[in-house]
Amino acid sequence: VVYGTVIYYMTALREGVKHYLVFLSVMTLENFAGIGLGMCLSESFTSVEMAPQLAPAFVILFLMFSGVFLNESNVPVWLIWLREISFIRYDFQALCVNEFAGAEFTCDPNTTATCIDGDEHLERLKFDDVKIWENCLILFGMIVGFNALALAIIYYRQPKYLALGARDTASDKGVAVEAKKA
Fold this sequence. Notes:
Elements: H1 2-10, H2 17-44, H3 50-64, H4 80-84, H5 87-100, H6 118-124, H7 132-157, H8 169-181
Helix pairs in contact: 2-3, 2-5, 2-7, 5-6, 5-7
């Protein structure tokens, strides 16, 4: 929350308590989804060193298909599934809608650049039909899914021990009595 607050005001994001709280909420959900993914990865590998080495590759893969670097419409059909499972994608979409929906910008009339408003920017990103609450619900589902998967992996990979036999209480009492005599 402290880090998000510093970033929010340092980057001069949209003013308003509602926008600030949405930003913090979405970022918190993304953080928890990332932690869940990290737990899945760390439970999947037998070597302690493998998880920190391979986790950045997974995050970069999700980042590539999140819409930040590659427009969603340019993703090849056979890789759409990577786009759909990217938790960063849902965070990025929700934050863009939070920042740009209904926003008006002023432009310098002396420049030749065209001035667009926030809704036009969302249309260019193909985010005009994105709803923040839906993306938050998807992120929450990913949190539950990642954590459930991590728990299932822990349960599956738990060490197996030899079962103990039934205790004979009569012989235990006899051993205890002989121990007292000695």
